[in-house]
C-alpha cells in the first residue's frame, strides 16, 4: 500500500494542469456548473473517492 501522507507539493506535481483545463473547458461548453449540486467538482470528488475505495477493497489484506 502506498504512503497516503502526500505533501501539498506532491499533490500539485501529480495534477496534470492540461487535464484540469480540458475538464473545465468541456464542463463550461456543456453548460455544467463547476460547483454545486451535480457540478464538475462534485462529480470529480465522487469518482475519485469511488476509485480510491475500489482500490482499497480490491487490495489483498495483509496476513
Descriptive notes:
By secondary structure, the protein is mainly alpha-helical. It has one domain. The protein is 62% helix and 0% strand. The longest helix has 19 residues, at 40-58.
Short description:
This protein has 63 residues and is mainly α.
Helical segment count: 3
How many domain modules? 1
Strand content: under 5%
Largest sheet: none
Order of helices and strands: HHH
Q: Compute the CA-based radius of gyration.
A: 15 Å
Residue-averaged pLDDT, rounded? 83
**Helical residues, percent:** 55-70%
Please tally the β strands and state the result: 0
Low-confidence stretches: none
Structural class: mainly alpha
C-alpha end-to-end distance: 13 Å
Based on CA inertia axes, which overall geometry fits?
extended
SSE arrangement:
Layout: H1 8-14, H2 17-29, H3 40-58
Task: Quickly list its features.
mainly alpha, extended
Amino acid at each position: 500500500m502506498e504512503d497516503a501522507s502526500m505533501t501539498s507539493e506532491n499533490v500539485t506535481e501529480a495534477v496534470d494542469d492540461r487535464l484540469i483545463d480540458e475538464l473545465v473547458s468541456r464542463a463550461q461548453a456543456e453548460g455544467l456548473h463547476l460547483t454545486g449540486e451535480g457540478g464538475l467538482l462534485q462529480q470529480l470528488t465522487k469518482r475519485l473517492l469511488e476509485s480510491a475505495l475500489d482500490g482499497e477493497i480490491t487490495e489483498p489484506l495483509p496476513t
